[in-house]
TrEMBL record:
This is Alpha/beta hydrolase fold-3 domain-containing protein. It comes from Brassica campestris. PANTHER family: ARYLACETAMIDE DEACETYLASE, CARBOXYLESTERASE 3-RELATED. Residues 74-294 form the Alpha/beta hydrolase fold-3 domain. Belongs to the 'GDXG' lipolytic enzyme family. It holds the Pfam family Abhydrolase_3. GO terms for molecular function: hydrolase activity.
Length: 320
């Protein structure tokens, strides 16, 4: 067996027979139609072919909404380096429940196939399939009653953290190319997982040991990448890819000063601003925080502040 351990990835073991053993991040929280923290949840299959689900989160009070009244719809992609975690993990279940309770939205947290069993681009393919399935409800005649009856497709947001923020970017690019309708209102990228072989600026990570660790994780997730970490899936900032067609009206990029991906996140925001994209960009930085601090220390002062920023971003877009 071959153990992979880095400071950016919980340990996994790959056995000689190809079996992958995840040594952490395997706990699951069940759904409940009895309110937990004022939120009800259920899992719905969006891809029978791959047995993939989306976990739906709904404010309990919204089960009694007046006829015709609808909620903003949040589509969320979890982090975990394309390898770990799921919408059913305690950290993500609890985080989405709090977002939904605070913002009064309907959320769909998307499960996607994980590497190394299913290398990149499986996660992107599944994420787009989930978006297509969710948008099949926009006329009110989809498979899932909560989405049919309660989702306002004029107020759709796509969000994610780390690898999930990277996925969110690529989903917005594809939405623009394929002219997804109705148009996505806003995209939230928290500590986006973008990277490159060379530092993006003089303040980016210079330590070769850390840079090689990130490259090792990407190689595990995407062994078929010809250019390694300069693969356009990962190197969005420096790959020459055109991001002016981002298919949404507003973007919120959140970065952390002690996050190895922080400078890449700021460079992404700068590239978007100069790209000719016709939307509104907001950037927030927590200088003293590390990668995904808001997920792992959800009750800290800065995590609550970031939650407020996230919720206000969705609310201000609604009021336009």
């Amino acid at each position: 067996m071959e153990p992979h351990r880095t400071s950016h990835l919980p340990p996994i073991r790959i056995h000689k027979d190809g079996r992958v053993e995840r040594l952490s991040g395997n706990d699951v929280i069940p759904t409940s139609l009895d309110p937990q923290n004022d939120v009800v949840t259920k899992d719905v299959v969006y891809s029978p072919e791959h047995n993939l689900s989306a976990r739906l989160f709904l404010p309990h009070k919204s089960t009694k909404l007046a006829a015709g009244k609808k909620l903003p719809l949040l589509i969320y992609f979890h982090g975990g380096a394309y390898i770990m975690e799921s919408p059913f993990s305690p950290v993500y279940h609890n985080y989405l429940a709090e977002v939904v309770k605070t913002s009064n939205c309907l959320a769909a947290s998307v499960q996607y196939r994980r590497a190394p069993e299913h290398p990149i681009p499986a996660a992107y393919e599944d994420s787009w399939s989930a978006i297509q399935w969710i948008f099949s409800h926009s006329d009110g005649f989809g498979e899932e009653v909560w989405i049919n009856e309660l989702a306002d497709f004029g107020r759709v947001f796509v969000a994610g953290d780390s690898a999930g923020a990277n996925i969110s970017h690529h989903m917005a690019i594809r939405a623009g190319k394929e002219k997804l309708h109705p148009r996505i209102k806003g995209v939230v990228m928290v500590h986006p997982g973008f990277w490159s072989k060379d530092p993006v600026d003089e303040k980016d990570v210079q330590d070769e040991r850390i840079r090689s660790q990130v490259a090792e994780v990407w190689e595990l997730a995407s062994p078929n990448s010809v250019d390694g970490v300069d693969d356009p899936w990962l190197n969005v900032v420096g790959s020459g890819s055109d991001i002016s067609g981002l298919g949404c009206e507003r973007v919120l990029v959140a970065v952390a000063g002690k996050d190895v991906f922080g400078r890449q996140g700021l460079a992404y925001a700068a590239k978007l601003e100069k790209s000719g994209w016709r939307g509104e960009l907001e950037v927030v930085e927590d200088e003293e925080e590390g990668h995904c601090f808001h997920i792992h220390n959800a009750n800290s002062e800065n995590a609550l502040k970031l939650m407020k920023t996230f919720v206000e971003f969705m609310s201000s877009t609604v009021e336009e």
